[in-house]
Amino acid sequence: MVCSEIILAVKKLFPQFSVISCEENYADELIMKVTPQIFKEACLALHKILLSSVVMLFALDEREKTGKFVVNCVFLNLRQSKWITVSIDIPSETPYFDSLAQNMYSSSFFEREIWEMFGIEPKGNPDLRRLRLHDEVWPQGNFPLRKDFTKKVEGSLGEYKFSRVEGKGIFEIPVGPVHAGIIGPGHFRFSVAGEPIINLEQRLGFTHRGVEKLFEGRNCVEAIRFSECVSGDAAFAHSLAFALACEKICGVSVSGEAAYLRAIFLELERMYNHVNDIGGIATDVGFSFPAALSAIIKEGILQLNEKLCGSRYLKKINLVGGVSLNLDENKKNSTRIFLKNIKYDFSELTKILFSSVSFMDRVDSTGVLKKKTAKDIGVNGLAARASGIPVDLRKYFPGVYKEAGFKMAIEESGDVLARLRMRVSEFKESCRLIEEFLAKLKNGEKINFSPVLKEASALGYVEAWRGPVLYWLKTDSRGLIERCKIVDASFCNWQGLSYAVLGNIVPDFPVCNKSFDLSYSGNDL
Amino acid sequence: MKIPLAIIQLIFIILFSPFLSGLITKIKNTLRMRKGQGVFQPYLNLRKLFLKREVISETASWVFGVAPFVVMASVLTAALLIPMFIGQSPLGGAGDFFVLIFVLALGRFFLALAALDAGSSFTGMGSSREMFISSLAEPAVCLVIFSVSLQFGSTGIAASFGMHPVPVSLLVAGIALFMVIIAETSRIPVDNQETHLELTMVHEAMILEYSGKRLALIEWAAYIKQMLWFFVIAQLIFPIASFSCCNNFSGLISWGMWYLARIMIIVIAVAIVEVSLAKMRLFRVADFLGFGFVLAVISVICAILRI
Fold first, then answer.
1. Which residue of A has its CA nearest to B31?
2. Where are the domains of chain B?
3. Which residue in A57, A350, B132, B154 has its CB near the most CB atoms, within 10 A?
4. Could you give the maximum distance between any two Cα atoms of chain B, in Å?
């Protein structure tokens, strides 16, 4: 969909629509500049046309150059495989814009984020509680992502207000942020009537490290190691998304061997995480035999990772413009043999799980996330596909996946079992894909890359094992990062979990949680 | 005769009971292709806990402090009610099977109370669940006892001790009791001793606020209770005569072997059940224990029909 088409389409729904500028800065990106007055209507119209939830909504502080803030709202056009951005300039004297949250829930958390980080108020958003800067530590009036922010200004501290469910026999169970297992910190406030959960409120942000701020001012070619630390279990996907954004800015497109290698490692990351989650689901329902078997398979993959690239968690592979290593015949063969063995183990594992009545009873129809709810919240990735929403970036932006004949898995029921089945089919598909890519891998293709650093912005995206990882990057003329906005699939999917557990009993929460398996650090940034 | 017997029996139960738990864990780990901890780990855990300092909730009253001792006292009393080596129990005449149940229930009652006393939301949740489960388990145990008493013509525990043919009624009663004991000893599929998930726990949630010596007492009491029930099941399904009827040394050895072997059979059965099943959804426990109850009813009918 080119500019003129999309403007026409929006005008049909919203006659007053006009753009200040509209450009296709890359083959897969389109950016429309509009006035703040029509921002809300324009976004709602796009939402209706594209049937896309808000994928990203973030602000930039450009007061030094233009005296304005910029707010970008990104939609995904699946039919034409294009990211469509609506951009507005907000004068620094009047830092507010019209909230979209009342009409599109998916924008709600992004708006809260903009409010706490930039102090730009989304007018009309009923819930402006802070997500990451906890009131108990961060005084009001600190906006860390503004360029003129240097250090925390002390002031009066507040307290977070949980939404309360009141009534006869309603109890509150506070859980966390420190949990009994070795997992990330997050606070969960259950309101229960006996065992069934009436409401679940999550309070995250305990691992907020200011990642986006830390990216700023770094050389975009060197900052890639940094992106590996955003979410440890998706280190490769994050660095890949970052690299892709950088490469767009520098004007290189990676194809051939490096692209295959990237796909191989991306699928390896998917495999070890999926099998880990399958084991986790088994552990959480007390089914220890398959849990032990999954642990063996996962360890096998991690050891293979180490053999192939020297890092169990696939770090230090991606570079801007390519990959840092090569697979020789020896490594390729051992990977093939390994995959063959693991397929057998994995089919044993699934056989045990799916033929156990006691296990199936626990996962079937537990933690149902309805398709409508998932769409409204903007749930994406694996959790969305398990609820019957066919979104997979590997399908819509295929690249090398096209040659391998990628098949997207999908489930309809949206329960723990559906997410489990998704993981099983994706694991198998990943196995197949890796074999295909290995066969296509030719030695000797070298990439000559000299980065052309310039002032530009671009979106890098990858379908990681949880769902899409998005990096929106803007650099200045020296190639230093001005703004890096990261959206991990966890950010939207945590909301999905809140709705999936409603009506389930408290002891089933851990298994629901594990079936989503979301990242704390990827969400808290 | 009675006092040395009581001493021997108590020492045997107290010292041997943690071993059974260690053994179950070892078997489970072997089945799961894991090396796992040694069989003596429960002893080391107890030692560790006895050496540790205690942290006691600020809201706790005297109930919290006293409960572990009541629990320990109740299981030790129960231990003295059961004939273990010869055809009489050290506290013989002081109580029958029903007393055994209520003595153990006293311990559980105090534990549930102490859990509420601690004022944590998890422990309260634990006691509510524990009471839910035990309210389903106790009727089944009572029926089992009813069936056993019909068989032997007495509710006295000592009456069931000794060599006797195993009729269908006892066999069914033994199986029913086995199902209930899985709930009583908080094992899969009713509860999960290994879990770290506060939200899914039952027994573990109840004792979450305990630490140090008091926790050690509670754990030890749980080991002893488990062993007592295993022994009762073993006596119903694999009856054994008093050791005093072995007239020579080799007879005594083979008696001892069989004595332990039947406990091992139950231990292995428990371990296999734990590894091969997933934990049930909480409200499914009612179905599971309901099934145990129905088995107990069948065993009563068998006992009436004398089969």
1. A289
2. 2-305
3. A57
4. 60
